[in-house]
UniProtKB/TrEMBL annotation:
The keyword Membrane applies. It comes from Kaistella pullorum. It catalyses: a 1,2-diacyl-sn-glycero-3-phosphate + CTP + H(+) = a CDP-1,2-diacyl-sn-glycerol + diphosphate. The chain crosses the membrane at residues 12-31, 43-61, 73-92, 98-119, 131-149, 161-183, 195-214, 226-244. This is Phosphatidate cytidylyltransferase. GO terms for molecular function: nucleotidyltransferase activity. The keyword Lipid biosynthesis applies. Its main location: membrane. PANTHER family: PHOSPHATIDATE CYTIDYLYLTRANSFERASE. Signal peptide: none annotated. InterPro entries: PC_trans. Its EC number is 2.7.7.41.
């Protein structure tokens, strides 16, 4: 078997296993089976998101090639710690009931502004202050919102984030295979040559079908998961295009090498980064109606 294929299979298996253990009750059950009462599932989830945040932020700093002498490079992580800490207090440590606030609206708006800047005004990101702002918005805010998605108590942990990953993986797979067999019209040939509108359409339809089955078998989850499937199928490709455009802007092939055969954290979580704020906003609106 090809060595690169073995690397991809091994890297993908480790990454998938880590996600499953930290986003479902399985992780805490396994650990507490060895040492009862050692950990709660929400602590594993918090650890996973924290790791993703700082690994992703480090990769973003490397991609954007800050001036080694600039002050901006040295304040990226203190600011990220501050932002993540503030969101953690609201979403994680004190519980959260989807009471929408102005700060969250502004944070979501900043993500939109950052994406528009990347595609339409990328020259602004050649300056270190622009790189600083983009890195914080692109990493700290989405991963902070991720803390609000699951519901948990001292004895229970819900599966919203696990099934979000399932839908993202499904969307990528469905779009790939539909595009491979039926794709003719390129979606963004300069940024991601393999993406086609036919693949996108197939991804939307089949991911909504996957969302339907999640909704049928897990009615306890927040929201309607056919709608979540639609949102994921639409915005997951955008997340991939955002990261591809970021790497293209700065002449980088992969965000890192932390996952053998798959690249870096940003390469694996590009869709997650964009889908999380969208799904969070949907849950808020659904709760208000």
């Amino acid at each position: 078997m090809d060595k690169n294929l073995l690397q991809r299979l091994f890297g993908g298996a480790i990454y998938g296993l880590l996600v499953i253990l930290c986003t479902t009750p399985l992780g805490a059950k396994l650990i507490n089976g060895l040492s009862p009462g050692l950990v709660q599932q929400q602590h594993l989830y918090y650890g996973l998101i924290t790791f993703f945040l700082f690994a992703g932020a480090w990769e973003c700093v490397k991609i954007m090639k800050f001036d080694p002498k600039s002050w901006e490079k040295w304040v990226v992580f203190p600011i990220i710690v501050f932002v993540f800490y503030r969101f953690s207090n609201r979403f994680f440590n004190q519980g959260f009931y989807y009471n929408y606030s102005l700060s969250e609206f502004l944070a979501l708006s900043l993500i939109v502004i950052a994406v528009v800047t990347l595609f339409r005004f990328s020259k602004e990101l050649y300056y270190d202050n622009g790189k600083l702002i983009f890195t914080i918005i692109y990493t700290a805010i989405p991963f902070s919102f991720a803390l609000a998605l699951p519901q948990f108590t001292s004895t229970d942990f819900s599966l919203e984030v696990f099934f979000l990953f399932v839908l993202i993986w499904s969307s990528d797979s469905f779009a790939f295979f539909t595009g491979k067999f039926f794709g003719k019209h390129k979606m963004a040939p300069k940024i991601s040559p393999k993406k086609t509108w036919e693949g996108f359409a197939g991804g939307v339809i089949l991911t909504m079908v996957a969302g339907f089955f999640i909704e049928q078998y897990h009615p306890d989850l927040r929201g309607n998961w056919m709608i979540v499937g639609l949102l994921v199928a639409v915005f997951a490709p955008l997340g991939d295009l955002v990261e591809s455009q970021l790497k293209r802007t700065f002449g980088v092939k992969d965000s890192g090498k932390i996952i053998p055969g798959h690249g870096g954290i940003l390469d694996r979580l590009d869709s997650f980064i964009i889908c999380v704020p969208v799904v969070y906003l949907y849950f808020v609106l659904e709760n208000l109606i």
